[in-house]
């Protein structure tokens, strides 16, 4: 699911303007609110029965106003667990393919992702990544709670990987506080590749909001890196994970990619 931060991969360009085919702030505020409320009413009891979540620190999520929820990422169900236990509606980006299916399965998938607060986005690098970052900014500036995973994708070995700077750029650009989240044992509840959940109790802990504005402008690479490291430090203190000390990315696909990774650059 694309809280796996397409936003983290984008180039930080605060001057970008909304495209005509992207939702406006008003659209973002009202999209599927009734469906989300219904899903919370019907799905939350079921989710709590299945996850048996131990939820800590819900009071740390501001009841209103823009906020960024930044979490570690261990399992597919993270993107269900966070919206179901959050004290307010949470929006996040999900792959557009989740909304494009046909038939009964496609319809159910579209209904499910819409009901848990997902907004479709085309994944990719370059302009697609920038569009995702800009769309995330507009969601936050509309006064919503927006969630993402600074690591960029799921950790397959349970360690916490270095954060990419997309979340920091969003925080420094919008001025929104960041609520760190530590998830525990969601990877044991539904391991990668598993289709049937295990009888494991998960923990979801919301930390105290971080105000990162004192670190400087979003235009500063140093400020983005410092803000990212502060976010990841807070997540690690909640999750208790071992630090990997590297970025979570697939092995290089060829010589060009191997060379590119040897050149110092900011992993956004």
Automatic annotation (TrEMBL):
GO terms for molecular function: 1-acylglycerol-3-phosphate O-acyltransferase activity. One of its GO terms (cellular component) is plasma membrane. It comes from the Bacteria. Keywords: Acyltransferase, Transferase. Residues 67-186 form the Phospholipid/glycerol acyltransferase domain. The keyword Transferase applies. Residues 1-15 have a biased composition (Low complexity). Transmembrane segments: none annotated. SMART domains: PlsC (SM00563). CDD domains: LPLAT_AGPAT-like (cd07989). This is 1-acyl-sn-glycerol-3-phosphate acyltransferase. It comes from Gryllotalpicola protaetiae.
